Every structure is written in structure tokens, then in C-alpha cells.
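for the recovery benchmark. C-alpha cells below, seq after
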């Protein structure tokens, strides 16, 4: 054990400096699709290629609903054309949006999070777990996991909302003290992904509980989730989850 302590002291702190500075490490994010001008015929073909209806034909091209994107890359690779893809590393534009007021100054540096898996495949849950490792080190920002709703300020939900998890989710939410917020993480929690709506799951957590912050992706990168927590704490501004052609052209 002493050898590991000595090695750690010699190598220094290896945690990411985000959000103080932008993260530039490679492979940190798969990026996001962007609204792209194209012909009406090509827009229809691109929309048909998307398995979750994240692409919507517009008058001058194709719009993107980031709540539904599962990073399958069908729109960015192959076929007669390709949609624009933003290989962003700055999670100020990661598509996090807020539907409610933030906590205020009392909670900005001390928020306890209860994670509830309502039908996750394991991908989003694994990314959430990474927040506790030395690289992301969410404790430095005042975020802490808690196993009980009685001590939780934020209910973080991953996975499509299955029928069997509706009652446990409601009980966990009702047991939390106020003020409390809900953060939905991943395309399945936001819209049902490729699994819902169906006979076994709802379209998304927002159809059952009022969601305050949504973090898109399948799965979203740990820094995108961290950014979502900073939004709910009122320490970062939200960003839109719907991208239109007018925004790309600078007309809207």
C-alpha cells in the first residue's frame, strides 16, 4: 500500500480539470449530430434511416432531436449523404436543458444524489459510476452518491422506464425531502430510446415524473453527466436539446 501512496505523491493529481478548463483528452465524447441543410428528398431518406426518429425533415434540410439520438451513426456514415456531426469536447454545448428552477446558493457545493435504474442495459449506469473514480472525482465539485432517498437532493434516473419500476421510482421520489430535483440520463430515460414506448416501458421518465434536467446520449459521457449536475446546481447554463436548420444558418 505504501508503494501506491508514494507513486501517487510523485505523479501528482490526475483528475480532469473540467469544468475549470475544457477537456481535450481524445475519445471523451462520441459527439452529437447537428441540423444540416439538404434537399427535401435526402432529408426524408435520412429521417427514414434513423431507428429512433431523432431526425425530422424540415423545409430546408433536417432537424435533430437530441433526446432520441442513440449514437448509431447511421446518419453520419454511408448512404447517399451524411448529416453534420460535431466532435465537441466542450460540454457547455452537450445538450443539457433545465425545466425548473435551480436549488440556489445553499446547495451549490453540497448535493446528494440517489441513482435509480429503471431498466438500463448497463451502459448509462456504468458511465454514472465513472463519476466516482479519481479521474472525474465528482466529490471535488460537491456531488455525492447516497443509497437512501431520505438523504437525497437529486434523483438521477437511467434506463427506459419499465412497468415494474414505476412504483419503486415514485416511492423513491416521494421519500425525498424538498427541495428536490430529477435528472434523466441517457436517451432511454429521456424518450424511451429504441425500447419504448412499448407494452413494457413508457416513452421516458418525463412521462411519469417532472424532469428538471435531461442529459442526452447513449450513453452520455461522464463529463456530460457532470455538466448536467452542474446545471441542476445552478453553476452552469442549460443548452437546447433540439437543433434546427435556422440555428445552423444563423437565421433563428
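predicted aa per position
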Amino acid at each position: 500500500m505504501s508503494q501506491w501512496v508514494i507513486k501517487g505523491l510523485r505523479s501528482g493529481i490526475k483528475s480532469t480539470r473540467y469544468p475549470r478548463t475544457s477537456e481535450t483528452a481524445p475519445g471523451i465524447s462520441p459527439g452529437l449530430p447537428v441540423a444540416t441543410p439538404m434537399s427535401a428528398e435526402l432529408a426524408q431518406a435520412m429521417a427514414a434511416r434513423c431507428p429512433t426518429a431523432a431526425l425530422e425533415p424540415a423545409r430546408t434540410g433536417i432537424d435533430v432531436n437530441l433526446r432520441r439520438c442513440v449514437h448509431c451513426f447511421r446518419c453520419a456514415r454511408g448512404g447517399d449523404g451524411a448529416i453534420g456531426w460535431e466532435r465537441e469536447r466542450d460540454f457547455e454545448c452537450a445538450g443539457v436543458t433545465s425545466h425548473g428552477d435551480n436549488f440556489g446558493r445553499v446547495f451549490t457545493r453540497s448535493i446528494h444524489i440517489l441513482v435509480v435504474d429503471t431498466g438500463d442495459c448497463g451502459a448509462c449506469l456504468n458511465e454514472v459510476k465513472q463519476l466516482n473514480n479519481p479521474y472525474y472525482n465528482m466529490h471535488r465539485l460537491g456531488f455525492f452518491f447516497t443509497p437512501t432517498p431520505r438523504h437525497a437532493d437529486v434523483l438521477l434516473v437511467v434506463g427506459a422506464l419499465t412497468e415494474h419500476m414505476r412504483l419503486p421510482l415514485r416511492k423513491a421520489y416521494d421519500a425525498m425531502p424538498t427541495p428536490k430535483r430529477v435528472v434523466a440520463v441517457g436517451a432511454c430515460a429521456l424518450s424511451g430510446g429504441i425500447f419504448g414506448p412499448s407494452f413494457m416501458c413508457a416513452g421516458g421518465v418525463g412521462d411519469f415524473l417532472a424532469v428538471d434536467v435531461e442529459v442526452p446520449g447513449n450513453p452520455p459521457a461522464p463529463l456530460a453527466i457532470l455538466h448536467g449536475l452542474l446545471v441542476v446546481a445552478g453553476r452552469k447554463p442549460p443548452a437546447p436539446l433540439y437543433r434546427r436548420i435556422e440555428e445552423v444558418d444563423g437565421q433563428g
